[in-house]
Amino acid sequence: MPTPAERKALLFFAVVLVLGASTRAYRVLHGPAPSDSKARSALEAQIKAADSARRSGLKKPKRERKQRTPPKPSGPVDLDVAGEKEIEALRHVGPTLARRIVSDRDSFGPFGSMEGLRRVKG
User: Fold this and answer.
1) Are 77 and 86 in contact (CB under 8 A)?
2) Number of Cα atoms under 13 Å in the Cβ half of residue 12
3) Is 69 helix (H, G, I), strand (E, B) or coil?
4) Helix (H, G, I), strand (E, B) or coil at 13
5) Which ranges of the chain would DSSP assign to H, the alpha helix?
6) Are 108 and 119 in contact (CB under 8 A)?
7) What is the pLDDT of residues 20-67, one digit of tens each?
8) Single pTM value for the model
9) Distances (CA, A) of 96 to 56, 66, 100, 120, 121
10) Which of 11, 15, 31, 102 is most deeply packed, by most CB within 10 A?
11) Measured at the alpha carbon of residue 96, what is the angle toward residues 75 and 108, in degrees to the nearest 5?
């Protein structure tokens, strides 16, 4: 025998089941409302218009991309005597790092080796 709480739960589920079934039966017997068919036909017209616009080639114009200049092939560069522009032409060296290299060289003298170059941050 179910407890009173179980009886309440079963009654609740039975009521929900009956309400759902009656709502579904009402919709089947009475069919869709006239406004639904109008809305559906309007939606279909919009979809057809969007599809025809897509097929007709109405696309977003492609943005022009900036042409990147390939890095200049450069031979060995002596960092003890090279200027900012020559150092900047090296791969992975931007204007800020080139400026730091030149200012460090001007302040402390020539690098002489890789150890001297490592004192420059970046």
Assistant:
1) yes
2) 6
3) coil
4) helix
5) 4-30, 34-55, 84-88, 95-108, 114-117
6) yes
7) 999 999 988 887 666 677 888 888 999 888 887 766 665 666 777 777
8) 0.41
9) 49, 22, 6, 11, 11
10) 102
11) 80
